[in-house]
Known about the structure:
Elements: H1 2-35, E1 39-42, H2 48-59, E2 63-68, H3 71-84, E3 94-97, H4 103-117, E4 122-125, H5 140-168, E5 171-176, H6 189-209, E6 214-221, E7 224-225, H7 240-248, E8 252-253, H8 254-267, E9 271-274, H9 277-288, H10 290-304
Parallel strand pairs: 1-2, 1-4, 2-3, 4-5, 5-6, 6-9, 7-8
Helix pairs in contact: 1-8, 2-8, 4-5, 5-6, 9-10
Amino acid sequence: MGVTAVLILPLLLLGISGLLFIYQEVSRLWSKSAVQNKVVVITDAISGLGKECARVFHTGGARLVLCGKNWERLENLYDALVSVADPSKTFTPKLVLLDLADIGCVQDVAKEVLDCYGCVDILINNASVKVKGPADKISLELDKKIMDANYFGPITLTKALLPNMISRRTGQIVLVNNIQGKLGIPFRTAYAASKHAVLGFFDCLRAEVEEYDVVVSTVSPTFIRPYRVHPGPGNWEASVWKFFFRKLAYGVHAVDVAEEVMRTVRRKKQEVFMANPIPKAAVYVRTFFPEFFFAVVACGVKEKLHVPEEG
């Protein structure tokens, strides 16, 4: 009996490995077929995540419309994509100059985007502007700039392209958001407010356009970090808030987020939250045990500002 088990176990492991490999290959091919010939618009395509999304969807045979506020960097991305792709299986990307913080030009740029192919199948709202600092040190002008880039810009572009999807009764809108759309983190008031606002908008929009077969998806990572950068080691001896924020700062790689965006499009997922267990737990603690969550966060602010605890 023992000898039989010894012989069967390697075969079982080999079989499981084979099945996992086949599943991964089928998923990869399925992902590509899901976007083949689809018109995919990517905002802030020149960012780290934007470039990775462009690479993934270009390889999948999508007809890309790449948007960004720097023409030279858009051209560099264009050259990088066409230099490694098979021209018989891919489409030449189209480039559109777009600064989502400049709300006045978004409507006109949306017309330019539609003129590229006459329709939009998938819109990936990726653009984002960050700011960090105490609330009383951030000017109202900067607050407004953050809201324009992170909230009014994406919703203005979405509203301009949405009628085309509704009339065709097909389409998908993907919002790449952030964990700060779920919970607030100190010294990021403007950024967190914009992420809360834009998530609320797309949550409402999802229900409104369901009858037109338009899918609204949100992908919320903690934050995106360079592929080869890893956080330093930590330990449980540090204070609770330091442990929490260190875990929160682990982030995810742009490559992983881009692959998740592709899976979200293929499976038409409504909401994806990309994070390690600590940030995920923080969202639930914030929901069900808010007093504890607020106490931990407040303790962190006091330590950071070297303010002694009362009593």
